[in-house]
Structure formats: C-alpha cells, structure tokens
Amino acid sequence: MLFRAPRRPCWEVVDHKEVKPTPAYYDQEDLQILKIHDSDIAGQYEFEMRSDFRCRQALEAARLELLHQIKKDHCNVLLVEGWKLTKLRRGREMRIRVHYHGKSHLICRLSSLFTPIMFPGRPARAAGNVNHRYPPFIEVLEFN
User: Tell me: the pLDDT tens digits for 72-120?
Assistant: First the structure.
C-alpha cells in the first residue's frame, strides 16, 4: 500500500508586472562615480502576505535588500534598475515574488565632464549627495 501526502493546489499567478532595466538618473551635480563593479547584480525575494497584496512595500523592501547586499562590495548606488513583480495565490495563502536587477547600459556624466560615457548597468560607488530613491516606474503598481 502506498501512502502519499495529500495533494496541495499549485500557486496561481494573480498578476505580473515588469519594468525593463532603466537608467537611474541622479539630479545632483555633485555626484561623482568612483567605481563600477565588475559584475551585474540581481536578487529574487518572496514575501508572504497576510490579508492583501502590498506590492509597493514589497518592491521597496526588495530594492533596499539589494542595496544592502551591494554594500558588501563597497558600492552604494545602482546605475540601472529593473524589476519583475508577480502576485501568487494558493487558497487563502498570498505571496509576492520580486526579482530586482541592474543590467543594460547607462549614459552618465562624471563630475565636471560633459561627454556621455557608457557604463554597464552594474552596482557602483558614488560620492556626493546620494539620496534615497524609489524603484523606477513604481507608479505602474496600484496604490496599496
């Protein structure tokens, strides 16, 4: 006689939003790129939700976690940012899966140089006024 665990339903995709890698422009003229990391960075994070989907908070938490990870490599900014957010449901359980990444290219101005320079979309170390930023195009998510 074979005993198997009761079958649980699979996770159902409720919604999916994606923002392709986008240059993160910094308005500050006193921002100077000191170092660009050798490799791209990406992170996938899952958040269990109790009653409703809180997409904006999950996306901001994923971005902050990725910024925390790049601090180990002495970086403090993402030159290019993109993300994918998937809402999942299984019965009464709800989950948000966020894939946050930095890729593509960026045209940037270094200190007083006004010639465009191509940078790979990688973590970088910048000096100057680096303010807290929100994920790009967070407005595509409904308010919750």
Answer: 888 888 878 889 999 999 988 999 999 998 743 333 444 443 333 333 3
Is pTM beyond 0.85? Reply is no
pLDDT digits (tens, 9 = 90+) for 13-28: 999 999 888 877 656 5
**Residue 2 is assigned to a structural domain of this protein:** no
**Comparing C-alpha atoms, which of 135, 141, 117, 116 is closest to residue 24?**
135
Domain assignment present for 68: yes
- pLDDT of res. 78: 83
Domain residues for 67?
Answer: 13-130
Q: How many domains does the chain have?
A: 1
Pick from 8, 4, 13: which is nearest to 97 by CA?
A: 13
Residue 3 lies in a domain: no
CA–CA dist 99, 52 (Å, integer)? 20
8 domain residue, yes or no: no
